[in-house]
Fold each of these.
Amino acid sequence: MNDKQKAIASKFLGGDKVKTIIIIAGFLGIGLIFLSTLSGNLFSGESDQNKNELFSVKEYCTQMQEDLKETVENIQGVGTAQVLLTIENSVECVYLENSNTKTKQIEPVIRGVVVVCQGGDNPVTVQRVLSAVTKALNISSAKVCVTKSNF
């Protein structure tokens, strides 16, 4: 740089207004970087998508109980029934390594089922209910209890 260029540069950069503008521009740049990372999380739609895809274990359990109750009550000799379902764990999501891409969602594991029904004292009815529940849920008969109700 020659002397004339140095004088122009020092005159231009030497003022307080220029320093203030540079500092403000720096803060604006940092703010924009922060907003871009924040907006990536807020506006990506993943949180809404995950809320729609994931369901609570309670909702899953309630829906399964209702479905089983309806099915069991349609079996000959059962009458009115109540179904209790116990769950071992919650929903598990499997993601690609180092990625937010979900490959699959594993439903909760059913630990046991209790069916209380009017026909629970009839061995034929008990066997029908036991067979239906074990096949519907793909669980062993050791995890299912069918008993007579007192109503």
Note: The longest strand covers residues 110-117.
Amino acid sequence: MMSELSLRIPGIAGHTFAVLGLGRSGAATAEALIGSGAHVLAWDDSETARAAAPADILFDLKNADWANIEALLISPGIPTTFPVPHPVAAAAREAGKPIISDIEMLVRAQPQARFVCITGTNGKSTTTTLIAHVLKAAGRRVEVGGNLGQAALSLAPVGHDGIYVLELSSYQIDITPSPIADVAILLNITPDHLDRHGGMDGYIASKQKILVPKGKSSLGIVGMDDAPSRATFAAFKDKGRRLVPISAEKKVENGVHVTADGQLVDAIKDAPRNIIDLNTIAALPGKHNWQNAAAAYVACKALGLSSDEIILGFQSYPGLAHRQELVATLNGIRYINDSKATNADAAEKALACYDNIYWILGGKPKDGGLTGLEPYYSKIRHGFLIGEAAIAFTKQINRAFPTTMSGTLEKAVADSHALAQREKKPGAVVLLSPACASFDQYPNFEIRGNRFRTLVEDLAGKKGAA
């Protein structure tokens, strides 16, 4: 039974909806639909997922009569087009039925709320949690989720004055046809998930959908530090949503940028003014986090916060788990959990921040492997290779720095710890930044990062932290 704090979706009582996928988002979707009075036909190709669902909603959707179904709500991990559409998605489309996300239904449930939506190949989780933290610290009513954390339809109602801060993947954007963002943030676009979008053009087009205007007052915040995002800014600046450019690399007209020495500069309306020295925010190291901070600053200003409120929020931000998370410092050597770096572009952000790196890398490789990381190889004292990618990465590194085939994360932590403690280089870090997905050895990057944290904490318990 749903509580008073559960979402109710108006106008769907008595209607029938199909739900495909019964993981985190699908299970919450089914519950919210039922709680709103709808009939649900739900399915998951996994027997384990079906076993965890209420038996009375299970129905093999391959046998569905689509004439009696309002829409298909599909989990974002299930393909609707490329590389091959799921048969149920193909049948729904052939029947002319909408294929939509739980995000779409959240907007229907809370039409008076304001929505901040964040996407980008990298940085979206940090930006999402940073914005939510700053808003909460300033006393605003906020719920945060989407691709990060809680599923959209498991969030609490926030009402007229409330704000939803949602991280959106390209998969979620593709199945959310309505323009939902009062504040839309596009941080960056670099190649990722290309198989799901039919190539780079499809991936860019998916990300760009977040900037479709919701209304005259809707705001877009666009990173200017990569070519596809700059092209997107130029293409969308006169399409009805006011756009503010941000950069961690250069000055931008009528926007917010960060100087080479870390000063966040607001030049949106008036003469440029320094807001905060980002070097003083330990939880936001590196230029990539400076871009995240710039996006968060613009978003929070647009939502009515003062510069002082934003500064206080930045200063109390604890950081994001699995994203350059400092786990421990042992005898002066830092142990950093960057498990969320599931591709080379994400790993680059961490490699740029440190020197004398004992690098744990590998897993299920992405297209291109380590391409683009070569300029950082001089910072690597030693690489410790794990997982499926280990042999291919050894060939790609080609003796640019010494490597050890550790194989498992347990062995890599032990190997890197032993060498780092023996060499005791100034500023040294043991860095888990895999540049790979986790799926060869772990169900997700969070479990991989939690395992790293446990292994390091075990070392700390044995050795004591300095």
Note: The chain has a mean pLDDT of 95.
Amino acid sequence: MRQTKLWTLATILILCGVSGIIFSCSDDDTKVNPTEDSSQFTNLTDAVPDAILEIRYYGTYNFVGQRIDGYEQPTALLTKQAAKALKAVSDDVREQGYRLKIYDAYRPQKGVDHFVRWAADLSATEMKQFFYPNLDKSVLFEQEYIMEKSGHTRGSTVDLTLFDMQTEKELDMGGTFDWFGPESHPDFCGNPDTGEYTGDNSKSPTGRSITAEQFEHRMILRRAMLANGFKPLDSEWWHFTLRDEPFPDTYFTFPVRELVR
């Protein structure tokens, strides 16, 4: 969900305006190239036909509570390179009895802008109890839960989990996708570098915890992603970016809809 540090809300409103974010508003003034060109992208399911899609931002079960701008169809898109690497991940986990379940992949800048406008509206708290019950919405920018830019917009980032073919259910990861809190961190209750479960839940503001089994489920996904060319994010167990992403300085603006070649 997040990638690049955002300025304070006041700065955003002054320089960018709540009606839309411009590309020069970043703390390091990173130069990016917005483009509508989708020629180097593919439908994720063309590369991974058995992937299960649950595109949260096309529906209303997400932290905003409504369909997000730019999501015109409930499909997932990735750069061709990221899709190829994700096929290798799929082959890896299938041997273990799992399938990939996708929550989000490429995200147009229009969707990121929608998140920023929502976060600036402190009265819009319809989904608070489900995704950020322990946070006052006013801290979402300050604590970097909402950003003006996202790695998803570069096309090689994916949010996903594992589906157990025997139980016909998602693996229990001990927390929901897009939960705003330390409970979503890969190092919550364990060491993701070693895979060791420690049970240390001291970072949780309410004493929440996850079990050794839930931590191991997170590690199964993490190991498969890292072994096949992706890198993790230290704040979200579900978020991975292709290590050698092909467009590190490009932000795409075309909508999410099935590509027809």
Note: The chain has six helices and twelve strands.
Amino acid sequence: MLALTRKKGESIIVNNDIEISILELRGDQVKIGITAPKEVPVYRKEVYLQIQKENEAAVSLENANLLKNIL
């Protein structure tokens, strides 16, 4: 993991086309802004993990249905 220190108004560039900006600091919270191409999905980690879990469940169900049809 790369750890960087940034101040309000400063940014980080990732892969030449994604900009992560520090918008606001309030207590122990940091408000960030992300500018990325539309084809690059950006999720909060907890949302991303839920999507992955649901995708895995859907694949498992689909595989079970395929096996049921074969037998």
Note: Helices lie at 45-70.
